[in-house]
Specification:
The chain is mainly β. Helices cover about 5% and strands about 60% of the residues.
């Protein structure tokens, strides 16, 4: 048999992982590569979310992994691209700096300066605190791991709904580099470059990575000639240094930078219930009214041609520095992670998308936010060989968020100013004991203490809309929580594992964003808590050709934090309440099937039933039994991948189908209903025999579907942001 080159994008390469990590290469590579062309087995997936490098099939937790081939070929550039590919995860965004991320129906919608996220993101083990910084540009990644359900006994910062772990690629042992260019429709021009290698052999490794994405917008405005809305214009960079002081100690230094400068994102009225007033040529009301949807139709507007007349923008800068000091010893590893991150976010949008020359019932939203955070984590990790394996840690986080939000009306504007400082302290740990060779018992716990101090001010300027009262107020609060975790796992065979877990999750309390009155501003939003019960099954069949993982869960939430925009007249006021209880139950399935060499099918399905158990909001409305927001009952992801030798190289084909069911955007399930949507992406690539170059033709939203990515109510009417239409392009990659 003639040995053929094994494709570089499938094989595990040591330089793609932690250079000092302890791994058994025989668990990651086939024993005999002479038979690679004759063997069809699903690739082993390595995860680090449990603070050790482990086979995904051996960890008793619901975790999904997106690896570099999919990241690159599916052009996964931000958290929105991840959402529809992970069971139970949905992502929508009011703007790039204000996404709403929900896992299994639980998420954060209040973007005030003193409330936390339900779904937490970590970048190289560093917690990303503010919602304005989460939806950043992904590039040069080793993997994306998504853990579903409450986390905290292994993490510096607690996460009540789940955690998204983004791991960047470390420097390589040898000098390597990549250069990539993309041309596409809407005048897309993307550039990516990476150079990595040793500065001092075996002592100091370094890496620099740069990524720029730019394309014109796909949406015009009938009132803004020459402006193309919903564009892309972002660039980011990352630098890494790895010092190997000796065989036992190393220091990793990381720096990252992200810059966005975007045009407007035109809002489209999609459901009209309350008429808006019309203006005459003199700018005064005519006495006539019209539904905003009828106004859109009368002017000839549609999804591709909005009718907003005010120009918006997004201007955001994110940067961070971190150090990771590791000391290996006979009794385990001592790890210190120190990080500082800073975000500047400025944003202006026309919330109704209606022309200001024709109606006075409109409002522009303007946000200026500055956020800085410092975190320090110490972690002790026991040796992998011990019968009792444990992780213990101490964590400190300081956050300073200054958020100014302006609501701009035709003749005046109002301002809310929130300046919050948070201090969070935690001790956490988890231990696993092997009762037998097949049965493991895990116990973990987390003790958290947090304080928040916020100065806030409302200036209504007589507008009496959104912000009704003027006031100056200082809020203080502190919260303490103890959250345990219990897991029992049974390794029935080398290919089958069962586990059952009971875990408690916690999300800190705080103070409402943009309160309309002094009474709402004085209220303390109570912490959330949850007990999550989970049963999981992980298996591989047919001589490792089929991987099948299932998990069933039930979550009992208390004091769920729910934000509403309560309609008053033609606008409304923000109101955050604690839902007394909510029950979530569901089933999630993931599979990968490789029936023959070169062909693989994979996908996932999630069923979710998420309802309020007992919820009366501040105005007395009863939403008991209603479905939680952004909690589709069904979601589906299917993918096919095929590769074969072609002209001494490799030809690869990938296609995926994503479906997200109907969901609700308000506790009142009779209004603001987001329709179901489905998307198809595809790519075809040729890779040269020596891996020196690669060409990829790709398309996203191949069927050019019109679909809503975010929906909200304002003045009794529904307004939407639509997803990007079909985009396509050619990407050329050079490797050395």
């Amino acid at each position: 048999m003639i040995r053929k080159p094994f494709p570089f994008h499938r094989i595990y390469r040591p330089q793609d992982a932690d250079p000092t990590a302890k791994t058994d290469d025989k668990d990651l590579l086939p024993e005999d590569d002479d038979d690679l062309e004759d063997i069809a087995t699903v690739d082993e997936v390595v995860v680090t979310s449990l603070r050790r490098r482990s086979n995904m099939q051996k960890v008793p937790v619901a975790v999904s992994v997106i690896k570099p081939p999919l990241i690159r070929e599916a052009r996964i550039h931000n958290i929105e691209d991840v959402g529809t590919r992970i069971p139970g995860l949905t992502v929508a965004r009011y703007s790039i700096g204000q996404p709403t991320i929900h896992m299994r129906g639980v998420g954060s919608n209040d973007d005030g300066a003193a409330l936390d996220n339900s779904i937490v993101m970590f970048i190289d083990d560093v917690y990303v605190g503010r919602i304005t910084a989460i939806n950043m540009n992904f590039h040069d990644l080793e993997r994306i791991e998504v853990i579903r359900g409450p986390q905290g006994t292994l993490y510096g910062k607690n996460a009540i709904g789940g955690a998204i772990n983004v791991t960047s690629r470390p420097p390589t042992e040898q000098l390597t580099g990549e250069l990539e260019a993309t041309l596409g429709n809407y005048n897309r021009v993307d550039i990516r470059s990476v150079i990595s290698g040793p500065l001092i052999e075996d002592k100091l490794l370094a890496k620099l990575a740069f990524h720029s994405r730019k394309r014109e917008g796909w949406q015009k405005s009938l009132f803004l000639p020459g402006i193309k809305q919903n564009d892309e214009n972002t660039w980011s960079g990352r630098g890494k240094l790895l010092f190997r002081l000796n065989d036992r100690m190393q220091i990793d230094l990381n720096a990252d930078y992200n810059r966005d400068n975007l045009e407007s994102t035109g809002r489209i009225p999609v459901i009209g219930r309350v008429p808006v007033r019309l203006l005459g040529p003199d700018g005064l009301p005519t006495g006539e009214t019209i539904l905003p949807t009828d106004l859109l139709n009368d002017l000839g507007g549609n999804v591709r041609n909005a009718i907003n007349s005010d120009l918006g923008f997004t201007d955001r800068t994110i940067w961070g520095l971190s150090s990771r000091i590791s000391r290996q010893g006979n009794y385990g590893e001592l790890l210190s992670i120190t990080a500082y991150r800073k975000t500047r976010f400025s944003w202006l949008e026309d919330s109704t998308g209606l022309p200001s020359s024709l109606t006075d019932q409109k409002v522009n939203s303007n946000v200026n936010e500055r956020h800085a955070q410092f975190s320090q984590e110490f972690r002790w990790i026991s040796p992998d060989e011990a019968r009792l394996k444990y992780v213990a840690g101490l964590y400190y986080l300081y956050e300073h968020t200054h958020r100014i939000e302006n609501f701009i009306f035709p003749t005046r504007h109002s301002t809310t100013d929130q300046n919050n400082k948070t201090n969070s302290f935690a001790a956490f740990g988890e231990a696993t004991y092997s009762l037998t060779n097949q049965i493991n018992l895990t116990f973990g716990a987390r003790l958290t203490y947090e304080t928040k101090k916020m100065n806030q001010q409302n200036i209504s300027n007589g507008a009496q809309i959104v912000l009704v009262e003027d006031f100056i107020l200082q809020n203080t609060g502190s919260w303490t929580d103890f959250s345990p975790n219990f897991v029992l796992s049974w390794q029935q065979s080398d290919d089958i594992m069962w586990y059952a877990s009971i875990s408690r999750g916690y999300k800190s309390g705080g103070f409402q964003g943009a309160p309309s009155t002094l009474d709402l501003a004085r209220r303390t939003i109570d912490p959330e808590s949850v007990w999550n019960y989970e049963i999981g099954y992980k298996s591989q069949w047919l001589e490792d050709r089929l991987r099948l993982n299932l998990v069933g869960f039930y979550s009992d939430y208390r004091d769920l934090q729910v934000v509403q925009f309560k309609t008053q007249g033609n606008f409304g006021v923000f109101q955050t309440s604690n839902a007394a209880s909510a029950g979530l139950k569901g089933v999630e399935v993931e599979f990968a099937l490789k029936p023959v060499p070169g062909l693989e099918f994979s996908g996932s399905y999630a069923y979710l039933d998420a309802t309020y158990g007992d919820f009366h909001d501040q105005s007395g409305q009863d939403f008991t039994g209603n479905t939680l927001r952004q909690a589709p009952r069904h979601s589906l992801y299917l993918a096919v991948y095929y590769e074969r030798p072609f002209y001494e190289g490799r030809l690869r084909f990938r296609a995926d189908y994503r479906y997200q069911g109907e969901s609700f955007r308000e506790p009142d399930n009779s209004v603001t209903i987001q329709p179901a949507f489905d998307l198809v992406d595809a790519s075809i690539a040729y890779e040269s025999a020596n891996n020196f170059w690669e060409a990829t033709l790709w398309a996203k939203n191949l069927m050019d579907k019109e679909y809503i990515t975010h929906l909200y109510v304002l003045g009794g009417n529904d307004y939407a942001l639509f997803g990007t239409p079909r985009t396509y392009g050619l990407t050329i990659t050079l490797n050395f």
